Amino acid sequence: MSGVPAVGEEIPQLVKDPTTRQLVQYAGAQGDFYEIHYDQGYARSVGLPGVILHGLLKAAFLGQLVTDWLGDGGKLETFEVSYRGIDVPGRPYLCRGVVKKVDGDHVELEVWGEDADGNRTTIGSASVETTG
Amino acid sequence: MNIIDVIDRLKTRIGVEGPAVSATVEAGHVKRFVEAIGDPNPRWTAEVPPTFLVALAPAMLHLGDAEEFGRGWLNGGNRFEYFAPVLIGDRITARTHVADVYDKMGATGEMLFIVFETDYVNQHGKTVARLRGTAIRR
Questions:
Q1: B36 to A61: CB separation less than 8 angstroms, yes or no
Q2: Most Cβ neighbours (<10 Å): which of B10, B55, B122, B126?
């Protein structure tokens, strides 16, 4: 983070390019082996267009957005995400955030993830303590 | 299966706590996790990134009854509260309970929501984080 954050300021964006390979890697690292994340046939059989990103992988992307901006000195206090739409591998995933409130060292952010068409498929918020 | 019957049965599980799960935060696991999410922050060689706890201990009670409704699961959302950093080498115990059960009409029909809450406690008895997760059955 550079300087004192101002309400309305957008924090630096983070672009992710998830692949099917990454979904398999994440399934292993998290221990979530639900087939909708790596088995195309299974995903279609439950009404999905194909394999989709784990909600928690998108949460991890948004977590990185916040901690990258926060830097070493800061502390994350709460972090909340709500999944409003599905995302598929092979399409870029854009993570964005805006400063909503500043009270001394306490800052509240609105964060969201956008698909390639600009749809906010994940929305959320984070509150942080910006010390140091 | 009728959603009302499933909900009535699941509602009796509100407050029920699953078995405690304990695990040590291993450097190799954290490394595989940050590689998987693609976050190269050097901070994650000592402490864990914001969502790592979900990988450490299962944050869900398995509710087989819920699977009598709908075709599949979706994750509705997650809310993390952090009280202290989680460091590599920490021994964390997770306890999960069912916090709420309800239904809602969505664009693709009726959906069943189950809210889970997990408390994570470290080896010093300190609660380091709390996670609220909403699982959707549709």
A1: no
A2: B55
Q: Two tokens at A104?
A: 């001394």
Sign of the four-CA dihedral A43, A47, A53, A58: negative
pTM score of the predicted model: 0.93
Residues of A within 8 A of B118 (CB-CB) are none
Q: Tens digits of per-residue pLDDT, B60-119? A: 566 777 888 888 888 899 999 999 999 999 999 999 999 999 999 888 788 999 999 999
Partners of residue B73 in chain A, C-beta under 8 Å = 34
Does the domain at A14-18+53-129 match CATH 3.90.800.10? Answer given as: no
Residue B19 domain-assigned (yes or no)? yes
Could you give phi then psi for residue B96, rounded to 5 degrees? -115, 140
Binary contact (B37, A61; C-beta < 8 A): yes
The amino acid sitting at A69 is W
Q: What CATH number has the domain bearing residue B115?
A: 3.10.129.10
Q: What is the ipTM of this complex?
A: 0.95
